[in-house]
């Protein structure tokens, strides 16, 4: 497989992932972003832990969707993330759920 073939494959996978995201985003209430992944979920719990002066976060989610083009299945029943990095949690507004259609023109 050439570098060009690999780049084409990754581009196609990213487009497929974006289309899947567009199809499922309306099913979820929250966006959770960690240093490694991007999740959609309706239910989460965030706990902040401090051990010997080190702070880390524990996020658990139920019935989530994960943005990861290398996973064969992006819907996961239960997720537990431990991280020393920031965790960003946003509640989606209805206007956030209205994504442009594929044939919408930009700049007009």
Keywords:
108 residues; globular; 20% helix; 6-stranded antiparallel β-sheet; alpha+beta
Average pLDDT metric:
87
User: In this structure, how is the largest beta sheet organized?
Assistant: 6 strands, antiparallel
Tell me the overall shape.
globular
The count of helical stretches stands at 1
Describe the structure.
This protein has 108 residues and is α+β, with helices and mostly antiparallel strands. It has one helix spanning 3-24; strands at residues 30-33, 38-41, 43-51, 54-66, 75-83, 88-91. Strands 1, 2, 3, 4, 5 and 6 form a six-stranded antiparallel β-sheet that branches. It is globular. The relative contact order is 0.19. Mean pLDDT is 87; it is low at 104-108.
